């Protein structure tokens, strides 16, 4: 009897806190003998224009009515991007669904709230595909941090690596310890580096050249490393609010040059990474996310780690999060766990995410290959 291999095609959408743009990754997943395999069929980053950067960066200051309008407008924007992305592809199958992270505006799990804008209903209506979104809210309602969510994908898609380090707006680590996947946010990363690079009229510090030209300020480094968050055990996560309350005042008080600030903060990131890795056995370390392109930062991390470090080809470096959110969508459609209680601190592992289907679309119009 011929064996059957379940397969799925999902389009993952990711918008990080650094406001680089929207990552879109059309991914094919198949399950072979209880092992998941993936292939990125097409991927693209669509940068934000100045108006969207302004609207998203100011969203946390809006009144309720304006915020809800932005929520819908951004869902419409994402839906339009999906249509254009799919229309530009020649051949291939349409996605079974779109898995959208949205864009985080509020993340205060200690107060029981997190919010990623981008209305799933609007997105589905505009793009014409089923949408899986709002992956974090159920976890926070169950007492968790709502983050990180990527570790499920690290375990099932990248289990050959001892550690998976993501250098995005925030740096987070994921690893298997005695058969259990552990993960947590380490420290801010691109969110802070890009903030100070913009003071020099640059969207980011390309290759870390400005940071490399700066001087390490040991007083600032010690002040950053002494922040209480770094003494807390996991699960733990970070958001914009924490950066604005603790990081910016600490760094701005010294009135250092931008290169010195960038240099010192890269050392801070590397120190927090090495604190985590130093307590574990060595093994292959996978580094992805926009910060992996910062050669100065990558070198600082590599110099502190005695094991092998791998920075993959640009496609995986840049689109791993979009890939994994597509995978989280697969798990949600299958009703399988996509959020781990030992990672987020919620009361029980669960299958998070809300599913929207556009009007008139039968439940399995884009038939899953099961």
Based on the structure, what is the oligomeric state of the protein chains? single chain
Give the integer mean of the pLDDT values.
93
Residues in β-strands, percent: 15-25%
Instruction: Give the termini separation.
Output: 16 Å
What string, H for helix and E for strand, traces the elements in order?
A: EEEHHEEEHEHHEEEHHHHHEHEHHE
Tally of individual helices = 13
Helix share bin: 25-40%
Care to give the gist of this entry?
This protein has 370 residues and is of the alpha/beta class.
Q: How would you describe the overall organization of this protein?
A:
It is a single chain. With 370 residues, the protein is of the alpha/beta class. The protein contains 13 helices and 13 strands. The chain has helices at 50-57, 64-88, 120-127, 137-141, 151-157, 190-197, 209-213, 218-225, 240-252, 258-277, 295-304, 314-333, 341-344; strands at residues 7-15, 21-32, 35-47, 97-100, 103-108, 113-117, 131-133, 163-167, 170-177, 180-188, 285-288, 309-310, 354-356. The strands form three sheets. It has a six-stranded mixed beta sheet with strand order 3-2-1-4-7-13. Helix 8 crosses helix 10 and helix 10 (258-277) runs parallel beside helix 11. The longest helix is centred in the N-terminal third of the chain and has 25 residues, at 64-88. The chain is globular, with a radius of gyration of 20 Å.
List keywords for this structure.
370 residues; alpha/beta; five-stranded mixed beta sheet; 13 helices; 13 strands
């Amino acid at each position: 009897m011929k064996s059957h291999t379940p397969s799925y095609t999902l389009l993952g959408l990711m918008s990080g806190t650094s406001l680089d743009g929207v990552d879109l990754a059309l991914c094919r997943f198949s399950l072979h003998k209880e092992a998941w395999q993936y292939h990125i069929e097409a991927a693209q980053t669509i940068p934000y224009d100045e108006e969207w950067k302004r609207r998203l960066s100011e969203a946390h200051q809006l009144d309720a009515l304006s915020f809800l309008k932005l929520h819908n407008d951004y869902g419409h924007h994402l839906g339009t991007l999906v249509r254009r992305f799919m229309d530009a592809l020649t051949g291939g199958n349409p996605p079974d669904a779109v898995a959208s992270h949205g864009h985080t505006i509020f993340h205060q799990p200690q107060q029981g709230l997190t919010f990623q804008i981008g209305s799933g209903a609007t997105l589905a209506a505009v793009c014409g595909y089923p949408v899986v979104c709002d992956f974090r809210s159920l976890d926070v309602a169950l007492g968790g941090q709502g983050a990180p969510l990527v570790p499920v994908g690290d375990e099932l898609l990248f289990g050959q690596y001892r550690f998976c380090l993501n250098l995005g707006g925030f740096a987070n680590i994921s690893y298997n310890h005695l058969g259990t996947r552990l993960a947590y946010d380490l420290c801010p990363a691109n969110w802070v580096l890009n903030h100070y690079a913009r003071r020099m009229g640059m969207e980011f510090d390309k290759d870390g050249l400005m940071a490399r030209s700066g001087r390490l300020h040991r007083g600032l480094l010690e002040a950053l490393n002494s922040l209480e968050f770094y003494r807390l055990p996991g699960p733990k996560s970070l958001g914009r609010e924490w950066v604005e309350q603790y990081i910016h005042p600490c760094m701005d008080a010294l009135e250092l040059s931008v290169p010195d600030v960038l240099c010192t903060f890269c050392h801070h990131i590397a120190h927090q990474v090495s604190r985590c890795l130093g307590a574990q056995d060595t093994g292959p370390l996978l580094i992805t996310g926009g910060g992996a392109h910062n050669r100065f930062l990558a070198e600082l991390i590599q110099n502190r780690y005695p094991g092998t470090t791998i920075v993959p080809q640009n496609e995986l470096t840049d689109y791993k999060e979009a890939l994994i959110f597509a995978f989280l969508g697969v798990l949600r459609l299958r009703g399988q766990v996509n959020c781990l209680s030992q990672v987020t601190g919620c009361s029980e592992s669960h299958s998070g995410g809300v599913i929207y289907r556009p009007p008139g679309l039968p439940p399995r119009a884009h038939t899953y290959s099961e």
